[in-house]
Specification:
Length: 272
Amino acid sequence: MKILVTGATGKVGSRLAKRLAQRGDQVRALVRDPKRAEGLLEARIELAVGDLLDADSLVAAVRGVDSVVHCAAFFRGATPEQARAVNDLGSQHLARAALAASVRRFIFTSTGLVYGSNGGRLAREDDPCAPTAAYPVTKLAAECFLLAIEGLDARVLRLPFVYGDGDPHIEEAIAFLRRCPPSERMSIGHHADVAQAVTLLLDAPSPAHRIYNVVDDEAPELATLFASVGAPPPSGSDGERGYALLDGRRIREDLGFRPKFPRLADAIAAGA
C-alpha cells in the first residue's frame, strides 16, 4: 500500500519508514527539511515537504495515500505551548487533510505516559488517563480528537519506552531517571516490535478496537536498563515515580502480536 509516515527523521519514524519500505510498501515521508532525510532517499522513500503547523502544506502530502502513520511529535525540550501546537493542533491539521483525501486508515503513535502515574500497576486501554506533563497531555488531547472525528478510521497505538536499532534512547534517558529507585520498572518496546504492531494494524481489515497498547513481554528494572549501556544504577534519591506499566494482552489477542524481542536480554543477545 502507499503510506505517509510523519516524523520520519525521528527515532521511531525513521526506523519504521525504512521497515515499511523493505516489506514492499510505497512510503512517502513528511519532512520539514529534506537535508535531514538523505537516509530516507537511500531507502527509496519519497519525500513530501510540509509542516504540521501549516495545514495547506499537508494537502499534497496525503494525496493518493492509502494510510497515514503519524509519528511526529515534540517531546523533550518543548514548552507546553509548543507541545500543544505540534502534538495536538498539528495532529488535527493532518487528520482533516487525511479525511479530505479519503485516506483509508490513520494510525496515531501515542504514548503509555497518557495513563499518568498509577503506582506501577498494569494499565489497560480502557483505564482512565490522568497525565500531568505537557507531552502526554497533548498526546491524549490528539487521541480524543482523532477518535471523535467522523468518517476517519483512526487507530491509536500507545507506545512504551522505545529502544534498539542503534537508538541512543536509553543513554539519553539516564539523565532524567538517575534519581529514581533502581528497582522501579518500566515498560519497553523494541523498534522492530513497534514496526510489527504498526504493520499488523495497517493490514487488519477491521480491527476490533480503536486503541492498543504496544509493549514487550518484560518490564525491566531501571538498574537493568542502565546496566545495558554500562551505566551504574540510579540512586533512588527521588523516590518512585510510579510509572504505569502497559498491559499488552489486547493487541496479542486481537491482532496476533508476538514480540520479536520479548525481553531486553533477547535484544542484547541478538546485538539489536
